[in-house]
């Protein structure tokens, strides 16, 4: 399962190249016997230690990052022995029911795997080395360990997303065996966790987009019925809201209180998010929660008159064309129907839009 290691260094290349802006070769010919490569915009540089340093710097900058001398991460002897035991058991148990005596082997695997893959400082190259080792045993062992959970029901993917370690996320997606729709013990999927993250580079944004396109972005949390879109909206994550909409998130799904993403944005006064949602052709302003309130009612009750004006104008004036208009034909909406209840429930945590921001 060898991947292209250069993708993790994209941002590093860019940052190094930006530092060379002041090192532009001088196009003038000095006419002497000195090496023209030693000439820069700020004048002719004599052949001395400074010149050697400059040339060395340029050579270092334009040389590809070498990973051949990196020492490959190798599992411990205890882990290798445990992997063999688990792999043998998996081959003998097609239904996945593992015998109780494997508990010790599984504990050894969990401890070392999560130590390598699930800490904030996890190295994607080390993670890939371990995945290669698992796959050398069997693809079934690889799938079992990649989706292995801790006591909180979190997988390595849950942790990588929580830490914002998108390089590790990319490696786990490359394994092609990661169950990204698997919820943790609190009922939250990987998509829900990453909806609260901040993305600081286009490279990482592409990783998130890839995750969204592979996952069911319309799954609801098991406890209170929120979707990833509701979570992103409630926390004002404009970039995540846009990525989710581009990936086919259903804008009108209601949680167990009947709240929609638009209602969440209206109450929490995320005006830019409101504008983005209103630009979506499927956004339905007439939906009411189980208290009978629309998004406009909620905005006005919260004292957000500026958002109220936007919502009122959207109800009485034609919509503009939207880049999301083709999504209906590209991706089906969630198979889960809109929740309906005549007796709304008040969830404890995370709180609904009528109380506080959604939190984990």
Could you please describe the fold and organization of this structure?
This protein has 360 residues and is mostly helical. Among the domains are: 96 residues, Ankyrin repeat-containing domain (Serine Threonine Protein Phosphatase 5, Tetratricopeptide repeat, Alpha Horseshoe), CATH 1.25.40.20; 104 residues, Serine Threonine Protein Phosphatase 5, Tetratricopeptide repeat, CATH 1.25.40.20. It is built from 17 helices and two strands. Strands 1-2 form a two-stranded antiparallel sheet. β1 and β2 form a beta hairpin. The longest helix is centred in the first third of the chain and has 16 residues. It starts with 9 loop residues before the first helix and ends in a 30-residue tail after the last helix. The N terminus and C terminus are likely disordered.
CATH H-level name of the domain at 217-320... which superfamily?
Answer: Ankyrin repeat-containing domain
Number of strands: 2
- Structure annotation, total helices: 17
CATH topology of the domain at 217-320: Serine Threonine Protein Phosphatase 5, Tetratricopeptide repeat
Rg (CA only)? 27 Å
Q: Helical proportion? A: 40-55%
Low-confidence stretches: 2-48, 325-360
Query: How would you classify the helix and strand content by structural class?
Result: mainly alpha
SSE order, one letter for each helix or strand: HEEHHHHHHHHHHHHHHHH
CATH architecture of the domain at 217-320: Alpha Horseshoe
Strand percentage lies at under 5%
Principal-axes geometry comes out as elongated
Mean pLDDT: 79
Largest sheet data? 2 strands, antiparallel
Order of strands across the widest beta sheet?
1-2
- Gap between N and C termini: 34 Å
- Mind telling me the CATH class of the domain at 217-320? Mainly Alpha
ANK repeats: 152-174, 224-256, 257-278
Keywords: ANK repeat
Pfam families: Ank_2 (PF12796), Ank_4 (PF13637)
GO cellular component, one term: cytoskeleton
């Amino acid at each position: 399962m060898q991947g292209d290691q250069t993708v993790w260094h994209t941002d590093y290349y860019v940052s190094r190249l930006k530092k060379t802006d002041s090192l532009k070769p001088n196009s003038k010919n000095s006419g002497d016997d000195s090496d023209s490569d030693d000439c820069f915009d700020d004048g002719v540089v004599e052949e001395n230690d400074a010149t050697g340093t400059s040339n060395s710097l340029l050579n270092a900058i334009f040389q590809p990052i070498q990973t051949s001398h990196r020492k490959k991460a190798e599992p411990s002897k205890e882990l290798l022995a445990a992997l063999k035991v688990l792999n043998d058991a998996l081959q003998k148990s097609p239904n996945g029911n593992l015998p109780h005596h494997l508990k010790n082997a599984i504990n050894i695997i969990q401890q070392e795997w999560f130590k390598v893959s699930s800490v904030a400082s996890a190295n994607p190259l080390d993670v890939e080395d371990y995945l290669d080792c698992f796959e050398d045993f069997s693809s079934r062992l690889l799938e079992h360990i990649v989706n292995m959970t801790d006591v909180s029901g979190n997988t390595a993917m849950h942790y990588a997303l929580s830490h914002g370690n998108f390089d590790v996320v990319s490696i786990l997606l490359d394994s092609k065996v990661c169950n990204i729709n698997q919820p943790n013990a609190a009922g939250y999927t990987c998509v829900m966790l990453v909806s609260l993250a901040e993305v600081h580079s286009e490279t990482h944004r592409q990783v998130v987009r890839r995750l969204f396109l592979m996952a069911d972005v319309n799954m609801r949390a098991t406890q209170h019925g929120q979707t990833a879109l509701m979570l992103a909206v409630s926390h004002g994550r404009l970039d995540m809201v846009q990525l989710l909409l581009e990936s086919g998130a259903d804008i009108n799904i209601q949680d167990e209180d009947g709240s929609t993403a638009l209602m969440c944005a209206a109450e929490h006064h995320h005006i830019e998010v409101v504008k983005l949602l209103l630009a979506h052709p499927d956004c339905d302003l007439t939906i009411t929660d189980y208290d009978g309130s629309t998004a406009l009612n909620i905005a006005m009750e919260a004292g957000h008159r500026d958002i109220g004006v936007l919502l009122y104008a959207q109800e009485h004036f034609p919509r503009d064309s939207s880049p999301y208009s083709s999504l209906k034909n590209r991706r089906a909406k969630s198979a889960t129907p809109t929740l309906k209840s005549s007796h709304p429930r008040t969830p404890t945590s995370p709180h609904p839009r009528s109380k506080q921001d959604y939190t984990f």
